[in-house]
Amino acid sequence: MTEKADIVGLITEGIQDKKGRRISVIDLSGIESAAASNFIICEGTSTMQVSAIADNIREHLLEKAGIKPYNYDGYQNSQWIVIDYGDTLVHVFIREMREHYNLEELWSDAPLTEIADLD
């Protein structure tokens, strides 16, 4: 498995551990103007769950791979938390904010992989 696949898999596990839903992976590697090679997007049902998902992603990557994010933001209101892993940006939304910003549509020219919910 490549390093890129490893980090996507670990992030997905971290999301699923806290019942994050509607996980999408957008491959932006072919888009020159993109801020990262991957966007991983998911949602929680409440601001408390959004925080818990984001915390778990950070803890999971640190524990399993020794990877710390370069930065993260959004904990102030926990409606949209972004975690920066350099080549991979993770976006954890509450549903209303995800629908409002619609990142999947914004990057619709990039390949999108949807990961099925566990339940």
TrEMBL record:
<dbReference type="GO" id="GO:0042256">
    <property type="term" value="P:cytosolic ribosome assembly"/>
</dbReference>
<dbReference type="InterPro" id="IPR043519">
    <property type="entry name" value="NT_sf"/>
</dbReference>
<comment type="function">
    <text>Functions as a ribosomal silencing factor. Interacts with ribosomal protein uL14 (rplN), blocking formation of intersubunit bridge B8. Prevents association of the 30S and 50S ribosomal subunits and the formation of functional ribosomes, thus repressing translation.</text>
</comment>
<protein>
    <recommendedName>
        <fullName>Ribosomal silencing factor RsfS</fullName>
    </recommendedName>
</protein>
<keyword id="KW-0810">Translation regulation</keyword>
<dbReference type="InterPro" id="IPR004394">
    <property type="entry name" value="Iojap/RsfS/C7orf30"/>
</dbReference>
<comment type="subunit">
    <text>Interacts with ribosomal protein uL14 (rplN).</text>
</comment>
<dbReference type="GO" id="GO:0005737">
    <property type="term" value="C:cytoplasm"/>
</dbReference>
<comment type="similarity">
    <text>Belongs to the Iojap/RsfS family.</text>
</comment>
<dbReference type="GO" id="GO:0017148">
    <property type="term" value="P:negative regulation of translation"/>
</dbReference>
<dbReference type="Pfam" id="PF02410">
    <property type="entry name" value="RsfS"/>
</dbReference>
<keyword id="KW-0678">Repressor</keyword>
<dbReference type="GO" id="GO:0090071">
    <property type="term" value="P:negative regulation of ribosome biogenesis"/>
</dbReference>
<dbReference type="GO" id="GO:0043023">
    <property type="term" value="F:ribosomal large subunit binding"/>
</dbReference>
<keyword id="KW-0963">Cytoplasm</keyword>
